[in-house]
Design a protein that fits this description.
With about 180 residues, the chain is mainly α. It has two domains: about 1-150, Growth Hormone, Chain: A, CATH 1.20.1250.20; about 150-180, no CATH class. Helix content is about 85%, strand content about 0%. It is built from nine helices and no strands. Helix 1 packs parallel to helix 4. The longest helix is centred in the middle third of the chain and has 33 residues, at about 95-125. It is elongated and about 70 Å long.
Length: about 180
C-alpha cells in the first residue's frame, strides 16, 4: 500500500507543473485544502465503521484506502509545489532568501511533527484524529483567503514594486493613486 501511495505521490507531483501558472496559487491552495478537509471528514466515517461495524469493515477499509489516495493527490496538487514556489514569490528581494529558508524549515518541522504525532494519536483517539485533521485543513481556508495574495502572472520584480509602494505608503501616508498623481 505504501509503495502504491508513494508512486501515486510521484506521478501526481507532475500535475502542478501544468496547473500552477494556469490556475493560480490561491485557487489551487483553496480548492485543495477544502477537498483535503472534506476527505478527512469522509475518512472519519469510514474508519469509524471499520472499527465498529464488522459487517461493512472490508468495504469501508477499501473506501478509506481510496480516501488516502485522494488526499495525497489533492495535497500534491495544491501544496507539494506551491509551498516551495509561493514564499519566494510573495516576498521582496531583500527578504526572499530568508523567507524561503523559514518556509522550508517550517515545512520540514511540521511534516516531522505530523509523522511523530499521528501514530500515538491513532493509538489513543482512533478515528477521531481524522476530525482533527479535517478541522486543521478547514482552518486554512480563511487564512488563505485573507492573507495569501495571488501571484499568478506577476514577475518577481512586480512583487518588489508592490512592496516598494507599500513601504512608500507607510512612510508618506499616501496611497498608490496619491503617489501617481503627485
Amino acid at each position: 500500500m505504501s509503495g502504491f501511495l508513494q508512486t501515486w505521490l510521484f506521478v501526481a507531483s507532475f500535475l502542478p507543473w501544468l496547473l500552477i501558472d494556469r490556475v493560480g496559487r490561491r485557487p489551487l491552495l483553496l480548492g485543495c485544502v477544502t477537498a483535503m478537509s472534506a476527505i478527512m471528514v469522509v475518512q472519519t466515517g469510514l474508519i469509524y465503521n471499520v472499527q465498529t461495524h464488522s459487517s461493512i469493515a472490508k468495504s469501508c477499509g477499501i473506501g478509506a484506502a481510496i480516501m488516502l489516495f485522494l488526499f495525497e493527490g489533492f495535497f500534491t496538487l495544491g501544496f507539494q509545489a506551491t509551498v516551495w514556489v509561493y514564499p519566494s514569490e510573495i516576498l521582496p528581494l531583500r527578504l526572499r532568501a530568508r523567507g524561503a529558508a523559514v518556509s522550508t524549515a517550517c515545512n520540514w518541522i511540521f511534516n516531522f511533527l505530523i509523522v511523530q504525532v499521528t501514530p500515538p494519536a491513532i493509538a489513543n483517539i482512533g478515528y477521531r484524529i481524522y476530525i482533527v485533521f479535517a478541522v486543521l485543513n478547514a482552518a486554512w481556508v480563511p487564512v488563505i483567503l485573507v492573507f495569501f495574495p495571488e501571484t499568478k502572472g506577476l514577475e518577481l520584480e512586480d512583487m518588489d514594486a508592490i512592496w516598494e509602494i507599500e513601504e512608500n505608503e507607510k512612510k508618506t501616508g499616501k496611497g498608490l493613486l496619491q503617489i501617481v498623481e503627485s
